[in-house]
Each structure stands twice: as C-alpha cells, then as structure tokens.
Amino acid sequence: MDQENGSQLKESLPQEAPGHGWPYWPQLSVFIVMLLVAGLWYWWSESGDWVIRVNGAPISRAAWQQETNRTEISMASTLGFDVQAPGNEKIRAEISKEVLKQMVERALLSQAASRAGIAAAPGDVAVRIMMDELNAGGQDRMAQVLQSQGYNLDQYRRLVAEMLTISKLNEYVTKNVVVTEEEIRAVYKSDHDLLTTPEQVKVGQILVPTKEKAAALIAELDKGANFEKLADSNSIDPGVKDSHGVVGYITRDDPKIPDAFRAAAFSTPAGAYARQPVQSEFGWHVLFVYDKKAAQLMSYADAHSQLQQQLLASKKNDVFEGYLNRLQENSLIERRVRQQDVPKPF
Description:
Elements: H1 2-12, H2 25-46, E1 50-54, E2 57-60, H3 61-79, H4 89-115, H5 122-136, H6 139-148, H7 153-173, H8 181-190, E3 196-197, E4 200-208, H9 211-222, H10 227-234, H11 240-243, E5 246-251, H12 259-267, E6 272-273, E7 278-280, E8 283-293, E9 296-297, H13 300-329, E10 333-335
Antiparallel strand pairs: 1-2, 1-10, 3-9, 4-5, 4-8, 6-8, 7-8
C-alpha cells in the first residue's frame, strides 16, 4: 500500500526532462538577466560627472567648472575684481551657483526651441562671428580672445548658435506683446523725474599749475582778453588744442567733474568768468560760463518713442520670464550638487 501511494505521489510531481536540471531555471534566468540589465542601466544613468540633468540632458561638473572660470576671467578683465583671490571663497561659491542656474535655464530654453522647431540659421551664426572678429581686430586677435576665455572656434560657434536660437525663441514667445497709448501716458505722468533734463551749465576752463598763474589770467580777463585765446596759449589741459578750453555742458552731479569746479560753475552767471581761481587735484582752474539751461520736463511727444520702447521691452521681459518659470515647473530637473562640488579655482 505504501509502495503504491509512493508511486502515485512520484507520478504527480513535475518530471525533469532528460538531460535538464530544475524545470523553473529558464524563468529564473530571464529574471536574473532583467535585474542585470536594470542594474547596468541605473549604473550608466547615474555614473559620470553630471551635477544636474535637465529632462535627462546632463550638465557635467567639467562644463560647470569651465563656465565658472570663464565668468571669473570676464569679471577680472572688465571689473578688475579677482574672484579667486584668498578671502573671496563665499563670493566665488555664489557666482558658481548663479552660473549653474543660468546653464539650466539655457538648457531649458534650448530644448523648448528644439520642440518648437526654432533654430538659428547657419548664415546668421556666420555673420555674428564675422562681426565679432571685426570688433576684436581680426581673426588672429579673435582667436587670442577666445583662447583667453577657454574657447576654441567650434565651441564659440555652438555658443553663438545657442544664443541666437534663444533670441529667436524670445521673439516667438513675445510676438503678441503690445503697449497701449494708455500705458504710455500713465508712465509719462508717474515718471516726471526720469523724464526731466537736469539743470546744465556750459563751461570753459584754463588749467594752470599755480594759483598765481590763475590769478594773473583773471587779471587779463578783467582787461578784456579773449578767454579762448588765453586758454590756447596758457592751459596745460591736453585737449585744449581741439577744445580751446570749452568743456561743454555739465550737471550738478556730474561725477567726472571735481566738486569745487561744479560749485563755481553753477554759481557764476552766464556770459561771465569766475572771479576766483578754483583748485582741484589737477591744478588751478580759471572758469568761464557760456550758457545755462534750467531743468526741463520732456514733452509727451518727445518722450513717446522712448517710453514705448522701454515699456515694450519690460513687458516682453515679464512674459519671457513667466514662460521660463513654466518650463522649470513642468520639467524634470535632477540635482546632484553637494557643497564640495562647487568648482575649484583653475
């Protein structure tokens, strides 16, 4: 009886095919392969030096480093500020964060332009590069400038294409923005201070090294001498040969003019010369006031075009910023930035 039950039990169990192992091995093999493939895909997607991915497109740590360095070089050459100097670590960290933010925004806008079928024409890119070469002083000088910024010509061409593409996207997104006459009138009424030409004085000077020399020239003017002829023969101002001592119109807050010079000019009547010499860091000045203009509000007709352009630019900027914000909200932006990832000085 036990032998019969055992035979029945054996017959009810799955039978191994001749020459094969466990019957579930094929299914298990497929499962293991799937795990391996998934693991390899995850390793591939998460490996590399990327710090941010914008809809799957990576921004590498190396690219971030390069862009940060270019910004620092530009600041050093235009502002004379060495970001990499000791003590500027916090400033450098903020700059690097701003650079990364702008790289993300450029990626979002470039992707949006691609989806909309917008791209810079190769001819426009070539014209822009040609203009940049002319402004730089020729191809050789342009190559030197690019090298100092860490670019070669191909990289710069891609950057120009990207910037022109984003500009075309901006035009496309803001093409329906308009400014109404009511908006222009409202700004004209509210911005009188900005539309008022400040008080001005047209002044001339004779610059000499000593107070005694200046006093002697004032004595000559008392006798009826011609101011511009005295300037031509006595002024040490390097530009006197072309200007004959005429400085031009200045305002009360002109930062290029010494305080004492401005004070004397505005206190002297039009058509007269200052009775006392004026001292500055440059020497001693004898002043002559040719003309005075009172502060004057621009008429609506004169201000109309300026206000229209300013308002249109402001409204387009607001619309495009809103568009960029929506792109950010509706995009997958993966961040893998740590404090130690802030680019180091090159």
